[in-house]
Amino acid sequence: MKNNSVLINEFKELLLSSEELELILSGYKKVSFKKGDFIIKQGVIVNSYYLVEKGFLRSFVIDVSGNEVTTNFYLEGSIVLEETSFFLRTPTKEYIQVVEDCELWTKDFDTFQKHFNQSEKYREWGRAHLAQNFFAFKEHSLTIITESATDRYKKMLANNPEIIKKSSLKHIASFLGITDTSLSRIRKEIVK
């Protein structure tokens, strides 16, 4: 496992001792999922988080009208975690589904807690990821309110072209808070 570049890259900036790195890496297990599989379903208590080595996933919720609303996308190198359920030990409201066959590294809650308590640098890594996810969520929420649909799509196109390539228009539209029809119109206008 030490030779896995995704895991090594994730922790290299922590400047861990070889013992600390071995401890942290020892808690990961490699798992594979096929397109369409769910790694998390609404109503369960999330007991693991994942690091994407290969593949593409998305998270979504079901709104009051029964529609899927995409809440996030996960590319290679992403950490896949439904934080509220994982840390508060409450049932999740989200689904996380594999969009493209995936190879993931996973660590369960108990192992995470053990390593979190044993390594100060790992604690800082975890806190940094939580803060980063919070700021990204806040930014996305504010963008939905303060920017036009066209600007939101252009920003996604500039900052996350891989998501545009790998995801369906329906999923992108729901993430941007617009209809499929509006997204199609925006795309046509941009091409002109």
From TrEMBL:
Location of the Cyclic nucleotide-binding domain: 16-114
SUPFAM superfamilies linked to this entry: cAMP-binding domain-like
Superkingdom: Bacteria
Chain segments annotated as coiled-coil in the UniProt record: none
Entries under SMART domains matching the protein: cNMP (SM00100)
Gene3D superfamilies the UniProt entry points to: Jelly Rolls
InterPro entries: cNMP-bd_dom, cNMP-bd_dom_sf, RmlC-like_jellyroll
CDD domains: CAP_ED
Designated name of the protein: Crp/Fnr family transcriptional regulator
Taxonomy of the source species: Bacteria, Pseudomonadati, Bacteroidota, Flavobacteriia, Flavobacteriales
